[in-house]
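Cont'd.
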Amino acid sequence: MSGVSSADTPAAAASLPSLRARTFTIIDVAATALFGIEGAAAAVHAGLDVLGVLVVGFVVALAGGMLRDVLLGDLPPAALRTPSRIITAIAAAAAAFLVVGVVDAIPGGVLITLDALGLALFAMTGAEKASSRGANLWVVTILGGITATGGGVLRDVLLLRTPVVLTESVYGTAALAGALATGIVMSFTRRPRTAMLVGFVVAFSLRMLAVTFGWQLPRAL
Amino acid sequence: MSGVSSADTPAAAASLPSLRARTFTIIDVAATALFGIEGAAAAVHAGLDVLGVLVVGFVVALAGGMLRDVLLGDLPPAALRTPSRIITAIAAAAAAFLVVGVVDAIPGGVLITLDALGLALFAMTGAEKASSRGANLWVVTILGGITATGGGVLRDVLLLRTPVVLTESVYGTAALAGALATGIVMSFTRRPRTAMLVGFVVAFSLRMLAVTFGWQLPRAL
Amino acid sequence: MSGVSSADTPAAAASLPSLRARTFTIIDVAATALFGIEGAAAAVHAGLDVLGVLVVGFVVALAGGMLRDVLLGDLPPAALRTPSRIITAIAAAAAAFLVVGVVDAIPGGVLITLDALGLALFAMTGAEKASSRGANLWVVTILGGITATGGGVLRDVLLLRTPVVLTESVYGTAALAGALATGIVMSFTRRPRTAMLVGFVVAFSLRMLAVTFGWQLPRAL
């Protein structure tokens, strides 16, 4: 049990709900903003006007989590119950639109790292939510993967591209592995923060290692 | 309070529900038929057979409202609770299939005006529904926009086109502006018919002005 | 009433629920595996890696039924409530990935027949589920059609192809006809197994006849 943060000890249990809610909120804002910026940058380079940029930023940031909530039957989706996530996504996309030159000046390696961060954050929060609602481990893994990659898939469909998750090796795989790790730790320990931490490390590490070493998944033909 | 229709005065409040329901029904039938015809015409010109034409007409007419209802958690979607909207959409698409020569003979300006009518009608009804269910102003605006443009987005995805809402300047913008106006008037007056009238005028005017004067939204690059 | 199987007689009514559940399960497993194999084969030939193959197999096998359940408000979708359908779809897709040479060696006529079987099975189970929940005949027909063809539509959208249901004559039509037949028999007899049998025969026969004789639906232009 070493490596378990103090907030996971029984003594801290009373304050866990608010702590967990606060941790969740910070993570969600961070991942939402990251994906909103990325979506907006992709839309700018696809030649879309400012509305198209805001729409694609919104979609990349929030559609994955909204699809997860639809499939869980948790409606309206969490992203639509308060304005905070919507404002985060749209503000991030608007900022990226205004300073797209700055975004473009970010080195590719930094962008890939930020994207891997968002991917890992969403995979673990999506998996944790599904797990805390009693979903089986298959569904926890799949919904974590959908939370992390669903927005990007919809972006690619709207921009008429083959979805990155189907072509980029070890992208969806990293999200699914992180979600699976989150689900396994959840089912053994019932400690959401530990589970999310493990899932985050698995997803982020796997994605970064795959990019660094050019790992590819096998093909049949 | 000048400009407020008599049905919005307190004296008329008792009959408002049925009046509102009837107004809603007439508007919905009109907008559904308009979008069903448009979707069918697009499918005919894409070379689809009669089933494809009916499917695309159905999608353009009803998918936006169905997506709104999924996100509101109002399931099954209103369009599927009675046969009336389904029959309207399919009958309109079938009629367009049979007399596509007549539809094609309609001058472009008339078609754009009819499309703007459908856009404005769906934007305001979608916004009013979200608002009456207690959604915040951001969600009211977004769901009004989705109601008005979601069917067209799905049509473009199915026909492998970049969605019009991402490329046509001031199309989605008009829908969102009308939905926002509906939401603002709703939150200040709680008078659905006034709010919908204002939203309709905003969306329709903005779209027609943009088409007439060739307004474009800014691009970043 | 001749032609009604003995399980539909009043004497057998007591055991009908479990019989129906078992029949349903067998049919669902068969149709899910068939569509999972087909989706995986399509993904292999599109050059996707093993994750892409599993994703597309999962989508083709389960997305239609999941969309049906979202629109019925039956959430989480049945496919996500137990691991069985998920495992079936993924195992079938994995098997197809491993022995794609074997799948490719299957004669085209056999593949078309297997696909028609899956189409007919999903059309009738989708229609029966919608009907047993009190949906009107239009919705029963549409949801049967969505159950049967929704996964294939999503596959084509992800692989940037025009959906087969919009281009292949008498594919969606066969599904809709089978669903309609199921709905009509359900509303007259309230015997699910008879209704599903009739719907299956209608959908499967119509699809196979259309393929055999090259039937086409009319086009407007």
